[in-house]
Amino acid sequence: MVSRVIPVEPFDLVIFGGTGDLARRKILPGLFRRFCAGQMPEGSQIIGAARSDMDDAGYRKVVADAVGEFGGGRDCESGTLDAFLNTIHYVTTDAMGDGGWETLNGKMRDGHVRAFYFSVGPSLFGHLAERLHRFGLATPDSRIVVEKPFGHDLETAKALNATLAEHFDETQIYRIDHYLGKETVQNLMAVRFGNMLFEPLWNSQYVDHIQITVAETVGVGGRGGYYDKSGAMRDMVQNHLMQLLCLIAMEPPAKFDPDAVRDEKLKVIRALEPVDWHHIVRGQYAATEDEPGYRDDVENPKSRTESFVAMKCHISNWRWAGTPFYLRTGKRLKARASEIAVVFKDAPHSIFGADAGRHRNVLAIRLQPNEGMTLDVTIKEPGPGGMRLLDVPLDMSFADALGPDAEEAPDAYERLIMDVIRGNQTLFMRGDEVEAAWAWTDPLIEGWQTRNDVPKVYDAGSSGPEDALMLMHRDGRKWREIKA
Asked: Model confidence at 46, in pLDDT bands (50, 70, 90)?
């Protein structure tokens, strides 16, 4: 199978925070893989910009080390790394001062796509945006890429959007959420809107409920300082899970166009009902003999920040009225897995009698690991002795179905960066979308603070707090088992 790749124009990409962890782990290795794939056109250049005093040769050493450590062992032709490094430059730049900006401007070239990746903290976004204009680096068709968090709440999100809007049009701002770059996440739209089989059934008449799970085995690690001020609600639910919810629940857009898609996602967020506090569970992982607990990791013995959230929510529109959506995410759980499960209703009448048991069709979309989909269907158990039924999965993993093409598929950051160069905003969040998500999330967080809520403790390596299991059991349902 030969994939069709939309070509990109030669570009100048500036990575502010070019020596930071994100640049080393994701951005630079991703760009190298695109270079290996022949997707970086001749004449393109990548410029690292940071406070460190370094020249091109020193930065190329940083890039080579990053590719060696995080490049995924990509097998490229001999000399490819050297050719890639020849596209790399570096400028020592002061984000809050004037140092380095004239030099950086001198490296920009007319007639090339200009993209500026803000791989820095949100407190620097405004400073960078202002200096890009003051020193003449920004053009009317330049693009900026900003990383989450997009604010800490609705008020700060509005302020951040207003700051960026002073210098850039909304069509130039790319708010990146790497979850939207995952192959399976994009396949949600292909499955829904490219197959007559599913879309007629994609509503409250046929769907009993939908589960969205993003489980991690790791703790907060070195992110303790940030995480203890954010928690799972701000770090995961407000963005990653919200985006998955929108894609699974949105109406068909008129066309696969950035604003058409994002208009429909926004409608979903605005249709979300407030969550009753009885329908939300917060948790915090405990210490074990071998591993520290959450409070140890964040060095805050009195922390009430959640490392786990589970909730039941509803969407008030014609398609989904009465169908619950169950969301959960957490750290230090039993397995690393991300899955969306669409659980269809029982057949209205079973001709096989009570002894046949209860059977349901479930479409499970795996985001990680082993991206793919399964559809559980009911069949007769082989052998004599009557009509005994069992559920079997029709399994499609991308690795099996697509062969080498699955292995060569770009990861999320690779795809999203190339979309920035192409000027395609479909997989990026719009400002009003971010603000609507915060408007729904803020009352939940404020409610915890008002009630002086304490997270439920759960064992590391478990499925989360018992109260999260009861959230489903009260409705006669159960969470799907978290499997690696």
From this structure: very high
CATH number at residue 119: 3.40.50.720
What band does 356 get if pLDDT is binned at 50, 70 and 90?
A: low
Quick one: angle between helices 412-422 and 28-36, nearest 10?
80
Global confidence as pTM: 0.91
User: Which residue range is the domain that position 108 belongs to?
Assistant: 11-147
Domain count, the chain: 2
pLDDT exceeds 60 at position 294: yes
Find the catalytic residue in 167, 209, 240, 314.
240
Per the annotation, the verdict on 240 as an active-site residue is yes
> Using N-to-C axis directions, what is the helix angle for 154-165 and 125-134, rounded to 10°?
10
Q: Which of 125, 147, 169 is the last residue in one of the domains?
A: 147
The answer as to whether 279 is a domain residue is yes
Which whole number is the average pLDDT over 279-284?
97
Helix (H, G, I), strand (E, B) or coil at 308: strand
Distance between CA 373 and CA 242 in Å, rounded?
20
**For strand 325-330 and strand 308-313, is the pairing parallel, antiparallel, or unpaired?**
antiparallel
CB 164 within 8 A of CB 173: yes
Q: Which residues contact 176 (CB under 8 A, 6 or more apart)?
A: 145, 146, 147, 148, 416, 428
What is the number of residues in the chain? 484
What does the DSSP 8-state code read for residue 69?
H
Nearest CA among 357, 370, 422, 358 for reference residue 398: 370
Residue burial 153-189, b: 16+ Cβ < 10 Å; e: rest: bbeebbebbebbeebbeeebbbbbbbbbbbbbbbbbb
- pLDDT tens-digit readout, 371-387: 888 888 888 777 776 67
> Rounded to whole angstroms, how far apart are CA atoms 340 and 182?
13
Other C-beta atoms closer than 10 Å to the C-beta of 73 total: 5
> Strands (DSSP E) along 250-335, which ranges?
280-285, 308-313, 325-330
Where do we find the tokens 């948790």?
283
